[in-house]
Design goal:
The structure is a single chain. By secondary structure, the chain is an alpha+beta fold. It has a domain at 37-153: Endonuclease, Chain A. The chain contains 5 helices and 4 strands; from the N terminus they run ααβββαβαα. It has helices spanning 37-52, 56-65, 106-121, 131-136, 138-153; strands spanning 75-80, 83-89, 94-99, 125-130. A 4-stranded mixed sheet has the order 1-2-3-4, with helices on both faces. A hairpin with a 4-residue loop joins β2 (83-89) and β3. The N and C termini lie close together (11 Å).
């Protein structure tokens, strides 16, 4: 099972291009502006359309994440820099992406890799799950998400807590929980 164990660096200095947009991160006040106003004017229509027409996998995951059901607030179809992410927990700097079959194609996989890298450069940890994993193994998907939420919001160094249980490798695309 592929996990990202490093917590991406947080940009805190004057060169932080997100600093004028948001005050994010564990232990700080959370604001929702994670892209600039000009870019938001372009992205908001796409985000709203995506919220109105989610895939079955996105809908299933949203029903499990919404209203603090996992102990953390999530936003769906949220703009970060120049991207719209499927789900984000701003408190933990955690992005969750649900990928359909198109994400297996070489060109899309290359784009996804660049997108993941850009989000990590902003300080976000990105978890990717296939539609099949979300639809067929939702409890395991939620266990991985909760594990990372707790890890990312912990104020003390991580302990030797075991990894969440691995689902069967019957999903499409990349290994479970990888980016």
């Amino acid at each position: 099972m592929g996990y990202i164990w490093q917590q991406p660096g947080r940009f805190t200095g004057p060169d932080n291009y997100l600093s004028h947009m948001a005050n994010l991160g564990p232990g700080t006040d959370i604001h929702t502006f994670t892209t600039d106003p000009t870019r938001w004017k372009t992205l908001k229509g796409y985000a709203r359309a995506n919220r109105k027409q989610p895939t079955p996998a996105e809908q299933a995951l949203w029903l499990a994440l919404r209203k603090h059901q996992v102990g953390y607030q999530f936003r769906r179809q949220h703009a970060i820099e120049r991207y719209i992410v499927d789900f984000v927990c701003l408190r933990a700097w955690l992005v969750v992406e649900v990928d359909g079959g198109i994400h297996q194609e070489a060109e899309q996989a290359e784009y996804d890799g660049g997108r993941t890298h850009a989000l990590q450069e902003c300080g976000f940890l990105v978890l990717r799950f296939t539609n099949s994993q979300v639809l067929n193994e939702l409890p395991q998907v939620l266990a991985v998400i909760i594990y990372h939420l707790e890890l990312l919001t912990r104020q003390t160094p991580p302990d030797d807590r075991p990894h969440p249980p691995a689902p069967s490798p019957s999903g499409e695309g990349e290994p479970f929980g990888s980016c």
